[in-house]
Amino acid sequence: MSARVFISLGSNIEPQRYLKVALSELSYHFGELTLSSVFDSEAVGFDGSNFLNMVVAVDTHLSISEVIFLFKRIEQENGRQVGAKKFAPRTLDLDLLLYDDVVTLTPVELPRAEITKNAFVLWPMAEVAPDLMHPVLERSYQALWDEYDKTEQNLWPVPFAWSPS
Fold first, then answer.
1. Confidence class of residue 32 from pLDDT cuts 50, 70 and 90?
2. DSSP β-bridge partners for residue 10
3. Torsion (CA) 19, 153, 119, 89 in degrees, nearest 10
4. Tens digits of per-residue pLDDT, 148-161?
5. Fewer Cβ atoms within 10 A, N terminus or C terminus of the chain?
């Protein structure tokens, strides 16, 4: 049985390059990707250069643990240091946001709390799945975005082009 998975992608070190690499890897492993716009956003939690962020939806037969393992491997193959500080510059950050409507704390927190806390996750989620219901809050991502305090974080859609090879 297939699961619908939502992934947050972020980078603030050569971000155009690393987002494209990540999309190519995800396309290779999962096939068709549903992409949000790409957003330029200020670093959250530390002083650093802006990030490029987006959300990608895929379908997979992999388990939650297998998806996380794959994301860690892709990050490490692209310069992410094992055990690196959470709030620091990075080449690539892949976070599992949703795995169908699973609610769990292990092996990771799902749905991921950052969905409703960070504009750079919620806005692209509302783009790719506006009518999908948050499995805990039971509100659509579009409704959550409409209610979000947009003065909290600054972000801007930016031009970005990627095509599967």
1. very high
2. 53, 93
3. 30
4. 999 988 899 999 99
5. N
DSSP-assigned letters across all residues of 33-84:
-EE--EEEE--SSS--PPEEEEEEEEEESS-HHHHHHHHHHHHHHTTPPTT-
Compute the C-alpha angle 43/46/79, nearest 5°: 75
Q: What's the first-to-final CA gap in the chain, in angstroms?
A: 27
Token pair in block for residue 114? 């950052």
Residues in contact with 73: Cβ distance below 8 Å, sequence separation at least 6, in sequence order: none
pLDDT digits 0-9 by tens, 84-136: 555 567 889 999 999 999 999 999 999 999 999 999 999 999 999 999 999 99
CB 141 within 8 A of CB 125: yes
CA atoms within a 13 Å half-sphere pointing along the CA-CB vector of 76: 8
